[in-house]
From TrEMBL:
It comes from Abyssalbus ytuae. Endonuclease that specifically degrades the RNA of RNA-DNA hybrids. This is Ribonuclease HII. It is an enzyme of class 3 (hydrolase). Gene3D superfamilies: Ribonuclease H-like superfamily/Ribonuclease H (3.30.420.10). A divalent metal cation binds at residues 15-16, 107. It comes from the Bacteria. The gene is rnhB. Its EC number is 3.1.26.4.
Length: 198
């Protein structure tokens, strides 16, 4: 049973998707749900099928008080590192909310203060709090849709299926075709990185 709001009117949950990928953005989302919001299906996006996530996305978008989703692209990830990119992504997603939250709950154990708003980091928060779970679903579905759209440009990496994660197939394609503008150059793209011509 996922928990709802703490004792504040506007609490946002925030989460990101794609942190461990070799290609594509890290995508962050923030969601404020109504106090009385109930949905027995919403859970950590990793626990749900792609079909279920895609069905839940419009429900979250329609029934939330407000939400924000942003991509942080590889060029910026390479400059500031993936942890900072994830946190900046979450800040930007919160910035897009139409309502300024009174409290922020964050999935994971790392965050930087945003506008003096109190925040709480929750390990595995996406399986404990409804608003973090909703944010995880939006981040994942928006990111997946983006990876599917760039798949058409470089089908040999099969991003439609692997979404940029370091699968054996993805690494084999990097070895064979090299890297694209969508790859994160600061990441260990191949186990024998030295052989990769950047």
């Amino acid at each position: 049973m996922l928990l709802n709001l703490l004792d504040v009117k506007w609490e946002t949950g925030t989460d990101e998707a794609g942190r461990g990928c070799l290609a594509g953005p890290v995508t962050a989302a923030a969601v404020i749900l109504p106090k009385n919001f109930e949905n027995s299906v919403i859970n950590d996006s990793k626990q749900l099928s792609e079909q279920t996530r895609n069905l839940l996305r419009p429900i979250i978008e329609t029934e939330s008080v407000c939400y924000g989703v942003v991509h942080v692209f590889p060029e910026e990830i390479d400059k500031i590192n993936i942890l900072n990119a994830s946190i900046i992504g979450m800040h930007r997603a919160i910035e897009k909310l139409k309502v300024l939250p009174e409290h922020i709950i964050v999935d994971g154990n790392k965050f930087k203060p945003y506008k003096q708003i109190p925040h709480k980091c929750v390990i595995k928060g996406d399986s404990k709090y409804m608003s973090i779970a909703a944010a995880s679903i939006l981040a994942k579905t928006y990111r997946d849709a983006y990876m599917e759209s760039i798949h058409e440009e470089f089908p040999m990496y099969n991003w439609k299926k692997n979404k940029g994660y370091p699968t054996k197939e993805h690494r084999e394609a990097i070895k064979k075709y090299g890297i694209t503008k969508y790859h994160r150059r600061s990441f260990r793209l191949l186990p024998e990185q030295l052989t990769l011509d950047l």
